[in-house]
Amino acid sequence: MAWLRRKLKVVMMLMMVNLFIFIVSRSGGTGKGEDSKVVVPSKRFWSKLTPSQAFWNLQQQKLDFQRNPVLAYTNSNDTGAGVAIGLIPDWLNDTGMTSDPCQPDDHVPSHVGGYSSLPAHLKDFLLYMRCRSYPLVVDQPDICQTTPGGEPPFLLLAVKSLAPHFDRRQAIRQSWGRAGVLANKTVVTVFLLGNATAVDHHPDLSEMLRYENDRHRDILQWNYRDTFFNLTAKEVLFLNWTATRCPGAQFIFKGDDDVFVNTLGILVFLEGLSGSKAKDLFVGDVITNAGPQRNKKVKYFIPESLFVGMYPAYAGGGGYLFSGDLARRLLVASRYVALYPIDDVYIGMCLQKLGLAPEKHKGFRTFGIEEKYRRNPCAYKSLLLVHSRTPQEMIQIWAWLNDPKLTCQ
Ligand SMILES: *[C@@H]1O[C@H](CO)[C@@H](O)[C@H](O)[C@H]1NC(C)=O
Ligand SMILES: *[C@@H]1O[C@H](CO)[C@@H](O)[C@H](O)[C@H]1NC(C)=O
Ligand SMILES: *[C@@H]1O[C@H](CO)[C@@H](O)[C@H](O)[C@H]1NC(C)=O
Ligand SMILES: *[C@@H]1O[C@H](CO)[C@@H](O)[C@H](O)[C@H]1NC(C)=O
Ligand SMILES: *[C@@H]1O[C@H](CO)[C@@H](O)[C@H](O)[C@H]1NC(C)=O
Ligand SMILES: *[C@@H]1O[C@H](CO)[C@@H](O)[C@H](O)[C@H]1NC(C)=O
């Protein structure tokens, strides 16, 4: 008898749930019923955009306004221009934007809070923050056409380097960055350089660079001060170069000259991707929930007067891998994002503008691997990138990976 009572109980309960669902779905109906009301807000339900106190955020507000297609349209002659113009608050109408962006911005000292006490490299960044184009002084215009098969490369390796790092570049050429055909895929390597200038106390290396480039034909150099806070300019200049000189590259790896890259592993990974995954690919060592560093002594220090807010998810600049298709979209997105002094965070911001986020791949070890695995050849077999490695280590690890006698479980 007990089981019958229990069964009855369950049936009753099911009926109650059904009735409940029925009531809820009726009252939440599409507005055709008698009881649907138009809710008129009693107070203003939007808030006015107010100028940010932080300089970068303010520049971004202005850029969002300038690049807003709706406003551009209503400001045009054919739709009653007068109406829209009167509505634009003065602080958004930046007349400074019309002067030469590559001349030091004289608004900066008076518009950035505490400017005079900022470190020199931050002042330099702020003065030239609007400049996105520096002259290309060493180019490889045909490097993506003169490949072994005459086809655009499957993988373009772009290495951020600094003029004095001759040994690192040479080690990369002799190991993971060897251009040509690898596992039946075309690989092209370029090194991205600015100028190591006398202002930064660099010796004049231009003769040696010329020799290096005559021999290897893989240097791209733009004429600007190659400093940490100018790496974002390097990023944007490279995206522009790729769109112009190497638009057919299927995938791009961009990274530092002190990382070891398992190029074979990367090719295997890329071959296994499906079409849609390959199109939007952006993988690396992803950092989430990070914000600006407020400690003045740290290289990444960003004061409140420059930026407020959190960083979007971004892939550590030691090295990341993305599709050629996405490279084109990132170049477009970059025009909508004010330059930020930290290059990898900047690319995270551009991805966010595109509605994308970088994906974490555990093979990217920009924070290194455990000491006990450092000299274990098999540890590198399953990884795609390890930071940081000396030129000698690069040669050694590459030899291990290419040894036919190497057997790993
Ligand atoms: C606006 O349109 C009118 C008529 O089409 C034209 O005569 C005038 O030059 C335009 N003004 C501007 C500022 O483009
Ligand atoms: C922006 O300012 C300039 C000069 O002050 C003025 O001529 C122009 O009409 C303003 N533009 C808008 C859209 O308000
Ligand atoms: C190498 O790649 C080409 C073109 O992608 C293809 O036609 C050929 O079959 C491949 N060869 C091998 C050995 O996989
Ligand atoms: C780079 O800087 C050095 C030293 O300041 C200078 O001699 C050289 O002309 C510069 N090179 C380029 C390409 O501008
Ligand atoms: C970036 O390069 C430009 C052009 O050489 C230079 O004027 C500026 O000071 C540099 N910025 C930084 C942060 O080094
Ligand atoms: C690259 O930059 C140059 C100089 O700013 C510009 O003229 C050119 O249109 C850019 N190319 C692309 C593909 O955006």
Describe what you observe in this structure.
There is one protein chain. This protein has helices spanning 2-27, 55-66, 69-75, 81-87, 108-111, 120-127, 166-174, 206-216, 231-245, 263-271, 275-279, 324-334, 343-353, 377-381, 391-401, and strands at residues 136-138, 155-160, 180-182, 185-195, 219-225, 251-256, 259-261, 282-287, 314-323, 359-360, 364-365, 385-387. Strands 1, 2, 3, 4, 5, 6, 8, 9 and 10 form a nine-stranded mixed β-sheet that branches. It has a three-stranded mixed β-sheet with strand order 7-12-11, covered by helices on one side. It is of the alpha/beta class and 409 residues long. α7 (166-174) packs parallel to α15, α9 (231-245) crosses α12 (324-334) and α9 crosses α13. β11, α14 (377-381) and β12 (385-387) form a beta-alpha-beta unit. The model is unreliable at 28-33 and 80-84 (pLDDT under 50). It is 37% helix and 15% strand. The chain has two domains: 55-127, no CATH class; 136-401, Spore Coat Polysaccharide Biosynthesis Protein SpsA, Chain A. It has 15 helices and twelve strands. The chain binds 2-acetamido-2-deoxy-beta-D-glucopyranose (6 copies). Residues 133, 240, 243-244, 331 line the site of one 2-acetamido-2-deoxy-beta-D-glucopyranose.
